[in-house]
Amino acid sequence: MSQPATPHSSSSPALSVSSIMHNGLLFLSASFMLLCLFLVFCWVPTEQNLGVSQRIFYVHVPMAWLGMVSIVVVAISSAIHLITSKEKWDSFAYANAELGVTFITLLLVTGIVWTKVTWGVWWTWDARLTTTAILWFIFVGYLMLRAYGPKGSQGARYGAVVALIGAIDTPIIYMATVWWRTVHPEMNVGPLSEEGSLDSSMLITLMISTITFTFLYVWIMIERYSLRRSEIAIDELYQKIS
């Protein structure tokens, strides 16, 4: 007598691969973080003028990179959502906005601490600091609008406008030290930085630190995106049964 067929989900191999990649990303993040800590505190030389306080640079710059990239991702994802009307893009934008405000907050905190040590004050209305603070308020405004503003497609449209303003602010932050006279250090990395402005070991450490925090950002973003999709599914189910 034949045995009944065992139920089998065709998506299980894909889920397995996704789980392996996700766990691998977490392992890479943790491994690179340990390497990064070793490089920052044990290998890279101490900067002659700023001393030990300069080591915050290897956290401060990756925070700036991820904070500015995230608002661009939010703007692009929001635009795709408006074009395609697919909810997944709106969830992706929302997840990146939450991460973006976290990283911009860390950027401001590390910058304020560094400012106190270097300039002797907690805050100065330097052009780059001010434009970064504006980006923080844009992130907060986006999240408040999505939480308390219109729901559905109308809220997504309003959020897209706010995200676009934030994306416009991003190149202004980067170019602030070029366009205005500021007390903020000149650009050490990027297409407009001077060649050789950083010691090779400092540059290597900065690149590894940036990669490390980027891995961490992507891992957290995947987690938050999945949670956001679950939240929406539960809300839809609640609306159907209520």
Your description of this structure?
The protein is mainly alpha-helical and 242 residues long. The chain has one domain (55-241). It is 76% helix and 0% strand. The protein has six helices and no strands. Helix 2 (57-84) packs antiparallel against helix 3. Mean pLDDT is 84; it is low at 5-11.
Find the structural class using helix and strand composition. mainly alpha
- Cα radius of gyration in angstroms: 22 Å
**Count of runs of 4 or more consecutive helical residues:** 6
Can you give the mean pLDDT?
A: 84
Please give the domain count: 1
User: What best-fitting shape do the alpha-carbon axes yield?
Assistant: globular
Biggest beta-sheet profile:
none
Ends distance: 47 Å
Strand content: under 5%
- Unreliable runs: 5-11
How much helix, percentage-wise, in residues?
Answer: over 70%
Query: Would you count the extended β strands for me?
Result: 0
User: Strand-and-helix sequence, N→C?
Assistant: HHHHHH
